[in-house]
User: What shape does this take?
Amino acid sequence: MQNYFKEIDFKRYSSIHIGCRKEVLVINEIGDYSDFQIIGRGNNLLISPKCEKKFAILGEAFDYIKEENNLLYVGCATSSGKLLTYTRKNNIASLEFLAKLPGNIGGLVKMNAGLKEWEIFNYLHSIKTKDGYIKKEDIDFSYRHTNIDSIIYEAVFNIQKGFSKEMQNEFVKMRDNQPQIASAGSCFKNPKGDFAGRLIEAVGLKGKKIGDMEFSNTHANFLVNHGNGTFDEAITLINLAKQKVKEQFDIELETEIIIFE
Assistant: This one.
């Protein structure tokens, strides 16, 4: 399967519904793409209409799930929903937290995604990049962070039996407390020992709206788009939250959303 280019309208493609139309490289062959920024399904991206960066996504060649030697090999273009369905059908435990966690496996591994203390690196065995397989122990990772700086083509998970429907339902319930309109997920990482949502609310920004962008009334750490929100409105709110939290609590909020200006 070969690489090809396709046009993507980021106003529709990205989960926050902001951005312009761009030609994007679809990668179906392992190689060196250091000129390109990989973007997955655009679930935590905020892209400026003026952004000059070259973007790429993984193509169909990396959308697969296979079991071998008690390990689960997952292509990084595979969606979280597809992997969750597979683990449910095959009675595989520990990945129930993928319920309602949007994105492709590559993006989720890259940012060590999860929900509260459940995160993807807890169950990861290794990853595959252009340089071959790298064991989890050789990767620097922490809460919502890894030092992986090349494209991840495959994620390998340890297999334990015993899928829990109760856990899945629990995770769905937790996520149902989050806003159900266009957003890029959590706007800021939780500072150590605190919650970004609590801090944003404490400085009076919960429900704060500029144009069509708002720190959600449902959950203050979600920056939501009511329809025609713009990049500039989003950035203004992000900077306002950083400034107010710094002034009041002397805490530097760090964005979880990835911004391309």
